Amino acid sequence: MSRFWSKVVHGLTPYTPGEQPKLTNLIKLNTNESPYPPSPGVLEAIRAATTGDLRLYPDPDSTALRQAIADYFGIARDHVFAGNGSDEILAFAFQALLNHEGPLVYPDITYSFYPVYCQLNGIRAEHIALNDDFSLDLTAVPDHAGAVIFPNPNAPTGQSVSLEHIAQLCRRLPDRVIVVDEAYVDFGTETAVPLVKDHPNLLVVQTFSKSRALAGLRVGFAIGQPELLAGLERIKNSFNSYPVDRLASAGAIAAMEDRAGFEHDRQRIMASRAWVNEQLTVLGFNVVPSQANFVFARHPQRDAGELALALRDRAIIVRHFRLLRIDQHLRITIGTEAECKALIEALKEILA
Amino acid sequence: MSRFWSKVVHGLTPYTPGEQPKLTNLIKLNTNESPYPPSPGVLEAIRAATTGDLRLYPDPDSTALRQAIADYFGIARDHVFAGNGSDEILAFAFQALLNHEGPLVYPDITYSFYPVYCQLNGIRAEHIALNDDFSLDLTAVPDHAGAVIFPNPNAPTGQSVSLEHIAQLCRRLPDRVIVVDEAYVDFGTETAVPLVKDHPNLLVVQTFSKSRALAGLRVGFAIGQPELLAGLERIKNSFNSYPVDRLASAGAIAAMEDRAGFEHDRQRIMASRAWVNEQLTVLGFNVVPSQANFVFARHPQRDAGELALALRDRAIIVRHFRLLRIDQHLRITIGTEAECKALIEALKEILA
């Protein structure tokens, strides 16, 4: 507390990101990064952009990056918004599009940044409870919702909802903004981007930090009709004119164009996920069926916090959330094949 | 206007950044970038960081970057905050530190983003009028101020206030936050950083976009006592955990360490400023004495808007603000020696 702080600051409980350890010999399965590096073409594009032109501001409209994203999805560039990671875009969306008289509705178990954005913006939230198997039933969204947001697949559970259910929700609440946070969509979930043309109330948010292996560059994007994007732009241009820098833009454009590398890596990650799933099940874990680049699992006989510590002792870090309903689960990022093996070996030791 | 927008969006008049033209054959004297590229060591540091590690999130605390800044100023790292350009830091400061019961006080002629931040945060502003020569008298700040912000040197006028006057203000309003926005400080103004140790209410904000030639990377920083920085951090960590990316951090660290290149370039820019000043005066302009990397000038017989258009016809772009008291002035960035010559030649033609 401080006499120098504005009133809003005193009430905040900021988001805690997963640890970014300074040690390099750890197996890092805690923040859902890609286990594979960006492709050589991406690194080459960044090096090519590392010139004296860095003295100049980037394009405030990220025109070239938005065009590359539009081309990938086969949509118009005016349906694409770019930002400093999908977290920044979510922050803009909470302020620009999700603050209404009715409550903002989201799942009780979900991305733990959502309640923080609500605090920051004074938004009243209402939760819908996930089913016992952690599946999300969108018909449970109440008609009095002021707006709706959910990740698809959900985090940290990894479960998806179908496009049909999303379209139904958009039709049922045509005057309410529906944000689908697709950070993990590329690991087995269908994207809602094709629904955007029919639903002016739908905003789809994606990131370069997971399936596109560029968490270190901070780039995310949103796809929606221009009316929604104009709201985001008004906030962005009242906050920071140039959030996407020249090198981040160059790297993201090259990543978007590298369809083969993208496809190759996501298939590998999904194959490793199937293997981890199977191995964990053999070890007695209950594993939530995941469409993400992580699994969410609990062991019926072992405390999740203790398991996380025991893994840490073996130089493997996973994520444990001390939150209602999920404090006995671990969220484990799918690593390389070797990292997945090391994880299973360590768990065998710990459980022995 | 849209039914999908939150209430705050409807009342916003976003900031308009200076044009970033796509044409490369223009002489760009409109957004106060450095005319000289970052040093080879900076580009080399970025290339060295362009590795597979870009798949990993950056350090959310920007520890290494903050240490490099702390070392430069000879202060402790816990007195340094880093962000995605000084605009992002200002945005955080308006939300975290400048929203109080009393009005936020700033000059009537100043950085035109300040009123936008006020709109976004619902902050009541009160202006103090610059003197006729555009100098800023800090004794005019009223005792009922809730907080104070001003650029030093001021923009777009280029005039500075002394450290003694800043210290006086900090002492006179010990319970009020005073933000000194030092975007242009390295071109002839003394930094207020040494005052921070004695004034827990003082926040100094700087950027890598001007004197450090990295506008394309988006890095800025603030220096203040930990109590003030904790307010910024709470907002930042409720907004976006990792705003400074890996390459921006690598480039900024190298730029901070390159003292010789920094010194060399800023001396060249100040020498060119003196020459431009002299030449403009010969051409009949009234030139405001500038401590920044731009000059602010008017011609008593020629309309500023027409002059800007005539320069544009000759492929030179400068900044013209259609604002009260300054709509007959042009703000002209100091370019390379050749660009400065081309500017003066073009003006000779236009005025002939």
Automatic annotation (TrEMBL), chains A, B:
One of the protein's GO biological processes: L-histidine biosynthetic process
Mitochondrion as UniProt keyword: no
Molecular-function GO terms, alphabetical: histidinol-phosphate transaminase activity; pyridoxal phosphate binding
Cofactor(s) required, per the database record: pyridoxal 5'-phosphate
UniProt key word Phosphoprotein: no
Cited InterPro entries: Aminotrans_II_pyridoxalP_BS, Aminotransferase_I/II_large, HisP_aminotrans, HistidinolP_aminotransfase, PyrdxlP-dep_Trfase, PyrdxlP-dep_Trfase_major, PyrdxlP-dep_Trfase_small
Family: Belongs to the class-II pyridoxal-phosphate-dependent aminotransferase family. Histidinol-phosphate aminotransferase subfamily.
Subunit structure, as described in the record: Homodimer.
UniProt name for this protein: Histidinol-phosphate aminotransferase
Organism: Fluviibacter phosphoraccumulans
Gene: hisC
